[in-house]
Amino acid sequence: MRANEEAAAALQEYAELFALCGGDAFRVRSYQKAAKAIAGFPEDISVVDVRGVPGVGEAIAKKMEEFLQRGSFRQLDDLRGRVPDGVRRLTRVPTLGPKTAIMLFEDFGIDSPATLSEAITAGRLDGVKGLGPKTLANLLKGVQELEQSGRRVHIGVAMSLAEQVIASLKAERIAYAGSLRRMKDTIGDIDILAVAPDSIMDEFRAQPYVAEVIAAGEKKTSVRTTAGIQVDLRVVPAGSWGAAMQYFTGSKEHNVTIREMAVKKGWKLSEYGLFEGERVIAAESEEDIYAALGMQFVPPPMREDGGEVKAALQGELPALVELADLKGDLHTHTDLTDGVASLADMVAAGQARGYAYYAVTDHAPDLTMQRMTLDKALEQRARLAELQRDHPGMRLLHGTELNIAPDGSVDWPGEVLREFDVCVASVHSHFTMSREEMTRRFITACENPYVDIIGHPTTRKIGMRGVVDADWDAIFRVAARTGTAMEIDSYPDRSDLPSDLVRLAKHHGVKFSIDSDSHAIPHLDNQRFGVGIAQRAWLTTADVINTWPLDRLLDFLGR
Ligand code: DGT
Ligand code: CA
Ligand code: CA
Ligand code: ZN
């Protein structure tokens, strides 16, 4: 829901500016919480009263109503004027808080990640109070991460934009290709193909999401959207649809290999078709092209020139896990901790998806912000047991998301953990330990007999925080031995584990759980992104514990 997302983004920005101006931390949190609730609200707030959203009181509702009318609100305009752009740019550096940003700006004239990196490298910040050598090293690393993430966006942002573009245009056929179709976790630009009259280009340029036309041709138009993302629209002949999809889906490396095969047969493969001289061998359908080359159809997420061509020629491509194979979700939150929907509503949403099982895994006490207690967890367990009666077809599992402390221990002792149906354990703090310490930390968690799943293992947040440094080979070896699953957290800015580490873990014999890590009902849909990661790593249902029937899953969980 676009209105909800945009209003939530404005409120989130307001919360950040408010914090930068030294605003009360309690109010900052209540703005952030309301922003999350609005983003995750299942109804369109431009249609229903925003006061119906949990956590939205009168003051926030007024701001949101003004935003819906004119795209901003007075208090946001004020703060945008008060906080210099330089300070705002600085706070995008991971680990750099508002107080430090203001100090760097006022005392040293540092007004961007680039000037910060120069100042650190030149030693200009050596000996400054509060900025020890370790802090400076982390800031430098943060600037590098920010630069690397560059202009790429995570798949969640790209997918909703691509779907919006496709819905906005009239065409006989229209689809996205490129890295988005390959389900990469970050996307450079969005490639859309259409079979349509030439007038589609005028229609495209006139869309409200277009900020700037980069290149306008008869067959291809490139624009930059208001969100800053480039979209390429290409019109292709109906008879070449399959060849064009094949060509523009890529990857380039996969296509080079395929094209060489065609050349060896004395043929030519282009975006218009597979040809022998003038004769068309295949062009209209992608399936026909792969078949004519004597190979199995290669699913787009596998097209990375990572052995898939050879396997397809030998008829040995694995049957990839698909979204429809998932029988449940093993990592979800409710409003008992930082979710925004009630237990009953989340469970009903799981039921509506036709799950065979559904686990509720709210945060555990060591994440002190969430104010969890054992009493609250036990009370939730009792309520879940009551709800179970209303959902005879779906097994409700009472779980928790534990915090892995720096020494690898978790929130509760064995006798408490034992009573949960499923324990996810995750790192939520102390991200910058040494490689050895971090490796030991994860291994200790895997060796805990009650830890079933390691949640979002690398802890990365795309564009915000990189992967923690650890010896993944060593961790995966232990996980395989102890029967601890690794999570594929499907929340798109996490996408964690990333697909290359999934492939490595599979090599060691590790099993996986593809979870949504939902904090709101619409997040349940994110599992499709986790399935994309799994497919890029060649996983089958044998590798993914939440495709298994309930009995086999319970066996794995060992309760
Ligand atoms: P991105 O946008 O960086 O996330 O990655 P892609 O894979 O979407 O790359 P992009 O947008 O540059 O091009 C889309 C696809 O079009 C690419 O995967 C393969 C195909 N393609 C584009 N340019 C070339 C080229 O020069 N040679 C070949 N063989 N294929 C190309
Ligand atoms: Ca692209
Ligand atoms: Ca492109
Ligand atoms: Zn977590």
Automatic annotation (TrEMBL):
Keywords: DNA damage, DNA repair, DNA replication, DNA synthesis, DNA-directed DNA polymerase, Methylation, Nucleotidyltransferase, Sodium, Transferase, Ubl conjugation
Compartment(s): Cytoplasm
A single BP term in Gene Ontology: DNA repair
Xref: Pfam families: DNA_pol_B_thumb, HHH_5, HHH_8, PHP
GO molecular function, one term: class I DNA-(apurinic or apyrimidinic site) endonuclease activity
Domain DNA-directed DNA polymerase X, residue spans: 2-304
Cofactor(s) it depends on: Mg(2+)
Record-listed E.C. numbers: 2.7.7.7, 4.2.99.18
GO annotation, cellular component aspect: cytosol
Domain Helix-hairpin-helix DNA-binding motif class: 48-67, 88-107, 123-142
Polymerase/histidinol phosphatase N-terminal domain mapped to chain residues: 328-406
Reaction catalysis annotation: 2'-deoxyribonucleotide-(2'-deoxyribose 5'-phosphate)-2'-deoxyribonucleotide-DNA = a 3'-end 2'-deoxyribonucleotide-(2,3-dehydro-2,3-deoxyribose 5'-phosphate)-DNA + a 5'-end 5'-phospho-2'-deoxyribonucleoside-DNA + H(+); a 5'-end 2'-deoxyribose-2'-deoxyribonucleotide-DNA = (2E,4S)-4-hydroxypenten-2-al-5-phosphate + a 5'-end 5'-phospho-2'-deoxyribonucleoside-DNA + H(+); DNA(n) + a 2'-deoxyribonucleoside 5'-triphosphate = DNA(n+1) + diphosphate
Task performed by this protein: Repair polymerase that plays a key role in base-excision repair. During this process, the damaged base is excised by specific DNA glycosylases, the DNA backbone is nicked at the abasic site by an apurinic/apyrimidic (AP) endonuclease, and POLB removes 5'-deoxyribose-phosphate from the preincised AP site acting as a 5'-deoxyribose-phosphate lyase (5'-dRP lyase); through its DNA polymerase activity, it adds one nucleotide to the 3' end of the arising single-nucleotide gap.
Stated name of the protein: DNA polymerase beta
Organism lineage: Bacteria, Bacillati, Actinomycetota, Actinomycetes, Streptosporangiales
